[in-house]
Write a structure and sequence with these properties.
This protein has a 7-stranded antiparallel β-sheet with strand order 1-7-6-5-4-3-2, with helices on one face. It has 2 helices and 7 strands. With 105 residues, it is mainly beta. β3 and β4 form a beta hairpin. The protein has one domain: Alpha-D-Glucose-1,6-Bisphosphate, Chain A, domain 4 (2-Layer Sandwich). The longest helix is centred in the N-terminal third of the chain and has 8 residues. 14% of the residues lie in helices and 52% in strands. It is globular. α1 crosses α2.
């Protein structure tokens, strides 16, 4: 499988709000899935559940308002071992975030 890259802009004056949406259970459940559990600290595991399954992501790296990195530790076989890397940058009125999913191996 190839690496995946998404670039998205969120209208907000600073990256802190986007960072909070990626690092807190309340933030994550507000935009991805309401069935989110865990803690968003380095070394902790976040659990995301959907009606047809879910993922467990270990928090690997946090750089406040700049970067969030998760490693998939449980879920669909093809996702386990991959890394999800969120890079945050401010551009005018928007926080631009790049979401990259790197394939293990």
């Amino acid at each position: 499988m190839v690496d995946i890259l998404h670039r998205v802009g969120v209208k907000t004056p600073t990256p802190e709000k986007v960072y909070d949406a990626l690092t807190t259970v309340d933030g994550l459940s507000g935009w991805w899935t309401e069935d989110t559990k865990g803690k968003g600290n380095v070394g902790d595991v976040l659990e995301f559940r959907f009606p047809v399954g879910g993922f467990d992501m270990e928090v690997v790296d946090l750089q406040p308002s700049e970067r969030v990195v998760w490693r998939v530790v449980d879920g669909p076989e093809e996702w386990v071992g991959t890394t999800v890397d969120w890079e945050l940058r401010q551009a005018g009125d928007y926080t631009i975030h790049w979401l990259e999913r790197f394939v293990a191996g």
